[in-house]
Every structure is written in C-alpha cells, then in structure tokens.
Design a protein that fits this description.
homodimer, about 375 residues, alpha+beta, Immunoglobulin-like, Rossmann fold, 8-stranded mixed sheet, about 25% strand, globular
Chain lengths: ~375, ~375
C-alpha cells in the first residue's frame, strides 16, 4: 500500500512539472512581505512557490489585475473593498510588475520603485537560493555616490553613480582600478546600484578576498547630440563619445583611479553589453577587460558572423584580441528568450573560429532579468585586475 | 469708455483675490510638463497660475480624482479613455500628491517619486520666483553618497546620505566641518537630497562664497530599540543615542571631518527640528550651531514656556546658551497652519524673556512644505562655521 501511494505521489509530481499545473495547483499559504516593500507595508507578498500576492484598496473598481511576467492575473474584491490576488510561480530573483485598475497601469502603492521598462514602477524579489552573494552582511561597506555633470557633447546635465570600496575612504592615498558598468534598454544609471545590488556584490566579494577593491562607474547609456534641442528629428547615439571624452576623464580627475588600460574594465547588460563591446573594441588602448551580460554587438541577429566585416574587423586578428583583452567574458541565463541565445551563440562561434579565448557563464534557471546580471557581475568582477 | 473698462477689470482682479474665485476662474492654457516628471512623460503639467493638470489612461474607471493639497479634484474622461483634470492654484514649491482611481490611492505614473506622507509617491514642482538658489548650475558639484551601516543600538541596518562639497575630492588632505540635517515626520533620509535639493543649495552657496564648504549628513530620524524584534509593544525613540554614539563617530571616522564642537552644526525640519533641538541642548559640548526649520521642542503646545522645567532647564541660563550656541536659528513659512506659528511663537517669547540671541526667518507665502525648508537651509547654511 505504501509503495502504491509513493507511485501515485510520484505521478502527481511528474505531471505537475508543466506550467499549467503549477499555475492551477493549490496555493501554499506561507506568504511573507516582499523584501523590497515600502516601510511598514504588508503587501505585496511572496510565497515558497515564488507566487506574488498583491493587495490594493479600490472599493469602487470594476476590475483589478496583477500584471507580472507578461501575464495579467485577475484579483478579487472582499467586503472591505480590498482587492487581493496572486500570480503563478515566478523565477527566482527580481521582477518589474504593476497593477491594472480599471484599465489604468499604475505602480503598486505597497512596493518600492525601480527604473525599468521605461518607467519608474514596482519591483519584487523572489528570494533566490544563492541570494547570499548579494545580501547585506556585516562586512565593510563602500559608498555609492551620485555624481552630477554637464555634458558638452549632449548639451545636457547627466548623472552617474560611483561605487567606491570601503578601503577608498580609509586609505586617502591609494588609487584603485575602475569598472565601467552599463544597464540595459529602457533602464538607467540607477539600475545597477538598486535592483542590480552591485555595491553589495562587490562589498561581499572584496571582504571574501575574491575581488580586488575597485571603483565602479554606472552611467546612463542614452546620450544624444543636442538633447536640449527638441527639434532634432533623428537622434543618433553619442554614448561612446560621451564615455571616452567626458565620463572617463571626469572619473580620472574626480576619483583616485589607476588610469592605465590594465586597470580599466568595461561591461554591460543587454543593450549595455552591445554598447560596451563596441566601445572596448574601438579603444583597446583604453580597456583590458570586457564583460557582456546577456548581449553581444551582433544582436539581434543569429546569423554566422563574418569577422572581416563585423565591428570593422575588430575580431579579425584573433592573436591581437587575445593579447589585448585579458578577460573576454560572456554570460547568459538558461531561460533567456529569443533572440539572445541565438545571437550570443553566433558570437561565440565566431570567437571559437578566430581562436579567441573567452569565458562563457550560464546562469541556471534565470531569464533576461536581474538575477542573471547579478550573478554575471559576481563572476566577472572576481576575474578583474589580477 | 477706456477708463470705465479699466475700472471693471480692476474690480474683477480685486474680487479674484479670494481662493473661491481663483479656483473657479478660467484656466490659463500655458501648461508645461512638471520638471520632476519621469523621462519622456508629458504629464503632470503646471501652468503660470500654479495649477496642476494630471492625466492618466483609465478607460474602464468610473471616477478619477487628482488629490493634492488636501483637496480631491474630479478629472474628466475623453473618448480615448484618458482622464484629465486640474487643481486650483498651488503655492510655489514642491508638493506631494496622488491620483485616486475608483477609490484606489496610487502614484501618478507620470511623475517621479519621493518619500513623504509615509509613502513613496508622486511629487510636483510649482516653479518658485526664487528658484535660482536651488537650480542646477554650471558650478562645481559635490557628491551625495549613500552610506549603509549596522546600528547595534537598534539592531538594524540603517542608511544615511552624505553630501561632500566639490573641494572634498580635489584636496585629499583638507578636513571639513559637518552639518547634521534631519527630515520631518513621515519622511526619511532621502528627503533632503531629493525634494530638499540640499546638494544644489550648498553647491550654489559655496560657488558664490556665501557658505563655507561643509559636509552634510542626512540620516533617518526614526530609530527604535531592537527594531528586528517585532514583538516590542511600545517603541521608544533612541534616535539621540544613535546620533551621538553611532552616526557621529562613524562620520568622523569615514570622512575627513573637523570633529570639534566649533565645526559641528545640527538642524532639522518639523519633527527633525524638535529632535535636533533636544540633541543640541543635551550635548552643547558637541554642537555650536542649531537650526530649527518649522519646529521647536515645545510642539505642539502654544502655551507659555517655563524655562526652569522646559528641556530639563537647558534654556534657564541665557548667558550660558548665548556663549555656547554661536547661531540659534529659527525659520517658519508665513502660511504655516496651526499649531506651528503658535508653538514657535511661544518658544521665541521664551528666548526673548531669557535674553537668548536668535535669528528668526520668515519664508514668504509658503506653508509647512519644502520651499520653506529649502529657503531655511539656504539662510542657515550661510551663517555656519564663520
């Protein structure tokens, strides 16, 4: 009889691997407030299945939905006019989401807000099994500084956030290497030190002696000529020019940096991976390390790359690239959607064909989202300046 | 005939001084996007009358209202399902606001978000006639650094923001005086460097040589014993203990400060004025400057103060106070509601009776809001460390 029960349970488990079953399966009632809620707010909540439960007071609304992961989940109203409802299980890590109240897409009044998907809006954390590497721990903490500057190239005020390791404030003479770290499309300069947790990742890596103390500069990848002039019809990105002629010289003058190429790295995620690959390859005299998280410059194409023409032939001489780039690092989540696996795959095939050394990291069970990129930073930063 | 028309217009203008007339008078169609909108968002907007016009897509909603300044204004839906509506004229300066969609109070998806009124929510700027003093100008800009620390007293992670003047990063040996600057009730450590514009106010003051370059520390005024222990029934504030035993020693060790009393000032707004007055008077060996913006420690009472008992008699010997406090500064907006004028007035009467020197500043046409406090900081900071 026991054996029979085991078989029944086993069949049930096997059947429930499908997402249909996960979505309709019973909800485990162990919800806890999300760790990125506003102070004192009980909702949204997350349970051990990774479901998100939202709640909002909307006594006169007709329909309220929780909009997360590309799916809208209907919520139900109780007698007190409070709507409540939950999503299917979500991947571990950070997700953007919103509420829809009678057709209006608005931030959830319970969550903290993050810039992504082209707007300030709600975010939620599904606790990851490996969350320890970005946890706030009792280790020396660096500072994240907001740095305002005027860009002559774009004719506009711009902003970057600069992480300085704990040691920076202790030893007033020491100089540090610098990593320039870029966000993805529809995100901004706040992403890496907020939902990206770059500061905590580095604090922990440095405390564990797994990374060299370094400065991290997080700027905004959107930069256009004459941004003040709104009559401009077709904006052309000048981010590379801003990075090389304004950001790097400013950082080298305002902060105690080591300013030779051997002590300067660059990396980015998605759109930022594309941008920073071009910048690194166009200025190999300035950078010795490149990291591409969920992106490469052949995006969105999955076609075979011709190294003679791709990026003006910058990968054509594999020996030169191997000599110049001390680390060429690529990362991708195993659940990333098209076209990312295809385009990153085509890029890697080109590298192999050219005999170009590189590291490829796979983030298990994560998609085109921030847990992939937190893990990528953790892996990549540990290899720099050694 | 011309003279007759002039008289009619004059009568109309005189009659329109009443708020009733202002609210119902015709709306001037010169609305522009608010300067604290999210990137690329056209709404909310502000016109030359100080009216706020909000807009939100909510095709299936029954009633949408703009909730600002304690009044809810009905918005109207057009054929495209877009609600639009405007408020009565608002005071110059910064205001918190929200939208109400079928009874749900939510942030406006068009605005940037600020922490106030106990929640992250929408804010708007009504351009002030004197806004130049906090404008972003082509002057050297300091940094605002996010500083994470563990408090043993509260058993919790805490955060402060630290402004360092531009010179701090240029001269790696120089030490600077420090102003500890606190927010009001239902606000947090983000207030002063966001809606408070403390960094831009100081950048401009320092560039104009109207203020001494100084460090500003902006911490969170809410601090309770064993914050990790949620079973605690009656929380007692330990902010004074955290300030004296944790924040100040940390700042003096992490930053290049001048750490004697002559180079340490303290100030706060509303609840923060109350808190910092107690802290300053209990530790006159540690502070030489006090600023109270829209608040005093006798709040909310307007009764006559007995200096023998008030704050354990700390104001009883006027000569000692005059000798110890190089600046005792109070500010108040002329439109502040009860009980602020009464309690600040009672406090000033006590100072006069005790022969205690102080400066009293009135912010014209502002209420218990951030323009009062921006102006107060501008006035107060210019008097420090001289």
């Amino acid at each position: 009889m026991k054996q029979f029960l085991k078989i029944i349970i086993l069949i049930a488990i096997i059947n429930c691997q499908s997402s249909w079953c996960q979505e309709t399966a019973s909800v485990v009632e162990d919800f806890k407030p999300s760790e990125v809620n506003q102070p004192g707010k009980d909702f949204p909540q997350v349970n051990s299945q990774g479901r998100v439960r939202a709640s909002v007071v909307a006594p006169n609304a007709n329909r309220v939905r929780l909009d997360i992961g590309g799916v809208k989940y209907d919520m139900k109203k109780n007698d007190a006019g409070v709507w409540i409802g939950e999503s299917a299980p979500q991947d571990e890590g950070f997700h953007y989401y919103q509420l829809e109240i009678d057709g209006a897409s608005v931030p959830d009044p319970g969550s903290l807000y993050f810039y992504g998907a082209g707007r300030w809006g709600s975010g939620i954390e599904i606790p990851a099994s490996d969350k320890d590497f970005y946890a706030v721990k009792d280790v020396p903490h660096g500072l994240v500084s907001e740095n305002i500057y005027f860009s002559k190239i774009t004719n506009a005020w711009r902003r970057c956030f600069v992480y300085t390791p704990a040691e920076y404030n202790i030893d007033a003479k020491k100089r540090f290497p610098v990593l320039y770290l870029q966000h993805g499309s529809f995100e901004d300069e706040t992403g890496w030190s907020s939902q990206g947790k770059a500061n905590f990742i580095l604090d922990n890596l440095i405390a564990d002696k797994k990374a060299v103390p370094m400065i991290i500069v997080m700027d905004n990848g959107y930069a256009y000529k004459n941004q003040g002039n709104t009559t401009e019809s077709k904006p052309v990105s000048v981010f590379e020019e801003v990075m090389m002629n304004e950001i790097i010289p400013m950082i080298d003058s305002k902060f105690r940096t080591l300013s030779d190429r051997e002590h300067r790295a660059i990396a980015g995620l998605s759109m930022g991976a594309n941008q920073t690959m071009r910048i690194a390859m166009n200025h190999l005299d300035k950078f010795a390390y490149y990291g591409g998280f969920s992106g490469t410059s052949n995006y969105p194409s999955s076609d075979e790359i011709d190294p003679a023409t791709f990026l003006d032939g910058k990968f054509n001489d594999g020996k030169v690239v191997n000599k110049q780039l001390k680390v060429l690092w690529l990362g991708l989540g195993t659940k990333e959607p098209k076209p990312f696996p295809g385009s990153v795959g085509a890029f890697r095939a080109m590298l192999d064909k050219q005999g170009i050394k590189h590291i490829f990291y796979e983030s298990q069970a994560t998609a085109h989202e921030w847990l992939t990129w937190r893990r990528s930073l953790y892996q990549y930063a540990g290899l720099l300046f050694k």
